[in-house]
Amino acid sequence: MERLMQFRKAFAEPGRPRVFSASANHGTESSPHPADQYVGRQIAAVRVQSDVSQAQLARSIGISFQQLQKYENAKNRVSASMLYEIASSLAVPVSRFFGGLPGNETDRDVPTLPVDERINFIASAEGRRLIEGLVQLHPRVRSRVSALISALGEALAVVDPKQESVASAGPNPVERRFVRCFLFEGRECSFHHSLVV
């Protein structure tokens, strides 16, 4: 490792700004490099956007789906040849996984595929946990949770974020509506501006 660091220093361009700071922990499992994390998230996002499961992609490139998970979560680094295989299988250029990475100014003129914020969330660990939890629910409960989340989004869209509610005043009408929506069967969850204080 020490020899590798000396090699990098010897061939580094003088005066070139560093995009990511090197730390003594790089190379350990607990601390993946930010660029590896970024590339892993991009692999997951493109895979989800392409409607390809981890198992399907792993099979097409000849690895286990567990290994693909490690790449997507930056537990293992993706080699250049493996990144090429992944890009080929997903029918995207290899540069797609680096678009938007800090310090990647060489391809400013090359438009990157827009990655929808929803797909990035679904591809994240938090999104996968949410989906796995929802799938385990009874369909009727899942429907209510979905309605609750939609109603929350609608309510938050009309609430002034600068306005603070007084905690001692008890639950506001929006909070009460969420509880009713979740507890009572067969009711539509809809919010109107008049419900928001």
What overall form do the CA principal axes indicate?
Answer: elongated
| Contiguous runs where pLDDT drops below 50 for at least 5 residues | 3-8, 21-29, 162-168, 191-197
Q: Given the helix and strand composition, which structural class is it?
A: mainly alpha
DSSP E strands, number: 0
Which fold name fills CATH's third level, the topology of the largest domain? 434 Repressor (Amino-terminal Domain)
Q: How much of the sequence is in beta strands?
A: under 5%
Mean pLDDT value:
72
Query: Rounded to an integer, what's the Rg over CA atoms?
Result: 23 Å
CATH architecture of the largest domain: Orthogonal Bundle
User: What is the highest CATH level, the class of the largest domain?
Assistant: Mainly Alpha
Query: Please, what is the oligomeric state?
Result: single chain
The proportion of residues forming helix, as a percent range, comes to: 40-55%
Elements, N to C (H/E) = HHHHHHHHH
Separation, N- and C-terminal Cα atoms:
60 Å
Task: Provide the number of structural domains.
Answer: 2
State the CATH superfamily name of the largest domain.
Answer: lambda repressor-like DNA-binding domains
Tally of alpha and pi helices = 9
Describe the main β-sheet briefly: none
